[in-house]
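Support request, please re-run this one:
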Amino acid sequence: GDAVFDGIDFDIEGGTTQHWDELASFLSQYSKQGKKVYLTAAPQCPFPDAYMGAALKTGLFDYVWVQ
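Re-run finished. Output below.
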């Protein structure tokens, strides 16, 4: 089809705290010159976020929407 993967929003509010940083790193590799793949996150206000702390520390997120 015509669908295009241009980004993903991490809105993790439960489950495991592991591997979100690895997933962010893996997905960021899809960005190429002229074809940006955006990574966004919606962590809870306390920092570091209980689930996303390690992922946010990677510095790979283009936008962070604090809840």
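Residues 7-64 form one domain. The CA atoms of residues 11 and 62 lie 14 Å apart.
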